[in-house]
Structure formats: structure tokens, C-alpha cells
Amino acid sequence: xxxxxxxxxxxxxxxxxxxxxxxxxxxxxxxxxxxxxxxxxxxxxxxxxxxxxxxxxxxxxxxxxxxxxxxxxxxxxxxxxxxxxxxxxxxxxxxxxxxxxxxxxxxxxxxxxxxxxxxxxxxxxxxxxxxxxxxxxxxxxxxxxxxxxxxxxxxxxxxxxxxxxxxxxxxxxxxxxxxxxxxxxxxxxxxxxxxxxxxxxxxxxxxxxxxxxxxxxxxxxxxxxxxxxxxxxxxxxxxxxxxxxxxxxxxxxxxxxxxxxxxxxxxxxxxxxxxxxxxxxxxxxxxxxxxxxxxxxxxxxxxxxxxxxxxxxxxxxxxxxxxxxxxxxxxxxxxxxxxxxxxxxxxxxxxxxxxxxxxxxxxxxxxxxxxxxxxxxxxxxxxxxxxxxxxxxxxxxxxxxxxxxxxxxxxxxxxxxxxxxxxxxxxxxxxxxxxxxxxxxxxxxx
Length: 446
Prior knowledge:
By secondary structure, the protein is α+β, with helices and mostly antiparallel strands. It is built from 18 helices and 20 strands. Helix 5 crosses helix 8. InterPro entries: Glycoamylase-like_cons_dom (IPR019282). This is Glycoamylase-like domain-containing protein. Residues 1-21 form the signal peptide.
């Protein structure tokens, strides 16, 4: 950001929280009509309204609860959150505001208030945060994850892109505040790049005062936007700039899969979980960016076949039916299993958010699968959103996870978010670098 932009940002930041009311309550959320699929409006609204104050959102801190349980028809919240969840909430709020709800804009500003006040490490956010007296407090582990910071960055970019060309002072103030947050993270991104390996560390531990001991080295992973964003935000930092090779040099593998005599070539995620392959597509139009999107289409098809065989939704990291948490995946879509013979949890539990994510790839098939899921397991739909997991025996979790609800709803508005993100990236001169990096999204084993 040049000096003129800094001056503009400083002037507008004064027009932040004080310009908005402090007593709004979001108790019903809707999006624009064209975003509702045919015959799925009530179901999508049911999941969207998880993000009501006092349900999935803490009315004091203004951020989502990571998890809630439904006990005897009442919401029991867990008072912690991570920044990917906050980011997805912001993107959903933009769509609610576009539908005419002015209170959603106020809430966006309130969430930015929280982010500006929350403790960080070199501008990067911790994982997770406890919610204490309406404030976010880092835990004693002191983990600063690259993945959640990148997800939040792209969520913020999407919000800024939505309002970049607005003449509204309130919206321009939001853009300025976002740019200040993003610029304030540059040193943090530089600090987690390993020049010897040429890869981004997975993050930093303030407890150990050291980088986390593993790297972001796979493209078919939910972390893939971290090296991409790190290269973009640091590119003007001279010798400290993180090279685009941090993205290009990540590995990608496929494995042939045959069904009814036809061969498919799906990309492998590490655990065979669907969100690892799909979460970044909520922010990036990967259908256009990837050289061969059939890798994603084939992964989705193979997931659908496995889920249909076991009468469950698609498989991904989710709650368990006894209210734990696990990385459920399809064995033959797991790099860990296929290439390294590692064992994985039994693939007998699916999660509705994974089936919803497939809307990005095949809208009609996704809706058919979601409707069939509801018909087969009608109790999957609570008053507060769809429960997070169901197994082959029909047992369900009592939990609803904010991250998974964010992905569920985010899949249906991904086209809008993609466009807003691209608006910002184009305006800042980043898109050519983005396109160049995605040209490397080709399998290493072909």
C-alpha cells in the first residue's frame, strides 16, 4: 500500500465502530433470491440461520462459536473460535447485506472491531481463541497457523472486493480497515517462510518461539492458499519477498479409479477428506484457474459413489456420531493410504457440509444428494441447522460446527465470493501472479 493509500486508510479508520449502531441483533438472515437453488430454499435458510445471534454467533463478542450442541432442543455453545470461521461469517454477512439487510454491514464493522482488538503475533492470528467476556484470548499453546490466516485473508479480500467501488463512506471505511489488517501481517508471513526448503512453514509456535515443524507441501490441501497469499502480499518486499515457487513446488498426486468400466483420475487429498480439496474454492474460481478441473470433478464423483454405497453424505473432517471429531475420508482418495499404506478411520460417517461443497462442482447433483439425504434421514435437520454428521446406521452427532456451516452456506454463494475476491485481486494487480501460480496445479505423477 503506498503512502497515499495509508493516509486514506487512516482518515477512514476514524469512521469505524463509532459510525455504526451498537445494539443490532441479527435474528434472521436471507440472501438474494437468485442464489437459492430450486426446491432448496427452506433447507438453505435453515443452515444460513445457524448464524443468528444467540444460536451460532455469540451476541457479545459478535463472532461465531466454533461448536454448538443441541441438548433437549436448546443450543449449548462452546466458547472458542478460529479465524477461518470468522472469515466465512464475514463473507456470509456480505451476501446478507447485498440482500438488503443494513444491519449486516454494521455487524461486519463490529467483527472488524474484534479483529483489530484481538492479540496477534506479527499481525497473524492465533488458533484457536477462547471467547472470554466478549473478547478473544489466545490459548496457552500459542499456535499461529498459516492455513487459518490465509483463509481469513481471502475472506477479508472478498469483503473488500465487494465494497471496493462503492461510494458509501461506511463501505469505504471497511475496505480501508481491511487493507490495514492485511498490510500489518507482512512481517508475519515473511517469518514463516523457510528459505532452505523453499516452502511455507505450517505456522509458528509462540510457546516454543519456533516455526511449526512441518511444511505446506501439498496442493490438494485446505492450506494451499497460504503460500499463494504469502507470495502476493510480500511481493514488494525485495529480498524478503516470498517467491511464487512456494506455491508452485507443492506436490499433487492422482490415482486412477474405475467405475462401471470407465476410468477416472481424481486428485488425492492427504486423508481422502473432501474439504481438503474444496475449501479454497469458496474464495477462488478454481474451475477457471486450474489447467485440468477434471481432477476435482473425478474426486467429487468418486466421493459420491462411496457415499451412495454407504448411505451417508460425502466424507470429510467432521464431528463423530458420539460427538468427538475425526478426519473421515475415502480410502482410495487418500494419498496417505494409497501411497504410504497408512491406516485411516473407518469411512462410515459422512457430513452434510461436504455434500454441500459439491455444489461448487455439480450443482444439480449436489442438490439431489442433499434432498435425498434429508429424505432418508429427516432428523438431520434441526431447528438450528443440519447436524454435522451421520453414519451408516443413522446415528447422528448432536453438534453443529461453525466451520462446517460456513462451508455449507459458502458453497452456495461461492460464485459471488469468487467474483468479489477477483475484483480485489485485479484492482491490486495480483491476478496475473495468481493465474501463473495455478498453472502449476498439475499432478507430479503424470
